[in-house]
């Protein structure tokens, strides 16, 4: 069964958040595509603002160091390394997030730009889920994310296109591409859709950018719908019994 993990990380839960509206469009389109084709699918939603991932603590770091000392075991090997109740709690907060990511064919991320980077809510999820040995092993074992697709919906109040004055200030989308690449997601499996100048409607000084903002949003909506169709159809095509040989045992 094809599976989608949908993460939203805008702190704005009011319904105005552009990233949330676009990721909701993706999720609706993806699910409808499966429904219309008579295919079953699995959809998991995580709102990182409503249900924030706790920041890392000493116990997480101690357990992580122990995992590194013991050869970076996969998640199934971590419980044998637990050094007390605090580490057990740290792992209990971590493992479900890891399992959700490993189980997903497609990961959809709503990622607003905050101070030129991703939101702290998304960064907390990234830091926790990237437990040593989960995706990257020093022995070169293939990453369990090698076949995973990632669709990032990036929103930003200003414009960061090539040649614009702030082009060098985008630490949001290059960061996410670099991060998922280092976790073993193939570069061609990471798709980024951007909606720019989202503040133009609000900020009087940006009034001359309103047309550009509307055009950027229209393109983003089209791209989101196209990616949702493509991802749903690809999942269905890949769902042969041997389609995910890299997926670890025990992950559905
Ligand atoms: C805390 C905060 C920091 C922001 N920093 C930036 C920034 O550095 N650059 C920018 O272009 N927009 C910035 N913005 C504007 C947001 O990127 C913009 O409003 C975007 O649409 C937010 O995503 P959302 O609509 O999905 O909530 C910031 C907004 C907030 C709330």
From TrEMBL:
InterPro entries: Flavodoxin_fold (IPR003680), Flavoprotein-like_sf (IPR029039), FMN-dep_NADH:Q_OxRdtase_AzoR1 (IPR050104), NADH:quinone_OxRdtase_FMN_depd (IPR023048)
Cofactor binding note of this UniProt entry: Binds 1 FMN per subunit.
Residues bound to FMN: 10, 155-158
Keyword Cell membrane belongs to the record: no
Family under the similarity heading: Belongs to the azoreductase type 1 family.
Subunit record text: Homodimer.
Function: Quinone reductase that provides resistance to thiol-specific stress caused by electrophilic quinones. Also exhibits azoreductase activity. Catalyzes the reductive cleavage of the azo bond in aromatic azo compounds to the corresponding amines.
UniProt protein name: FMN dependent NADH:quinone oxidoreductase
Recorded name of the encoding gene: azoR
């Amino acid at each position: 069964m094809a599976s989608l993990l949908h993460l939203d990380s805008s702190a704005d839960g009011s319904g105005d958040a552009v990233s949330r509206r676009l990721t909701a469009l993706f999720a609706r389109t993806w699910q409808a595509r499966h429904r219309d084709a008579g295919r079953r699918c699995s959809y998991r939603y995580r709102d990182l603002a409503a249900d924030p991932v706790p920041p890392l603590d000493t116990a997480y770091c101690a357990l992580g160091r122990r995992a590194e000392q013991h050869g970076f075991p996969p998640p199934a090997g971590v419980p044998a390394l637990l050094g007390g109740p605090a580490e057990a709690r740290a792992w209990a907060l971590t493992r479900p997030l890891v399992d959700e990511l490993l189980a997903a064919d497609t990961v959809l991320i709503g990622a607003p730009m905050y101070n030129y980077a991703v939101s702290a809510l998304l960064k907390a999820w990234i830091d926790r889920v990237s437990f040593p040995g989960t995706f990257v092993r020093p022995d070169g074992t293939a990453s369990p994310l090698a076949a995973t697709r990632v669709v990032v919906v990036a929103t930003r109040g200003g414009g960061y296109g090539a040649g614009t004055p702030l082009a060098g200030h985008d630490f949001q989308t290059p960061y996410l591409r670099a991060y998922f690449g280092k976790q073993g997601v193939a570069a061609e499996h990471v798709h980024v859709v951007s909606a720019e100048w989202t503040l133009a409607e609000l900020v009087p000084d940006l009034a001359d950018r309103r047309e550009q903002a509307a055009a950027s949003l229209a393109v983003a909506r089209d791209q989101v719908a196209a990616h949702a169709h493509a991802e749903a159809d690809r999942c269905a095509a890949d769902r042969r019994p041997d389609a995910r040989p890299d997926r670890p045992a025990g992950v559905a």
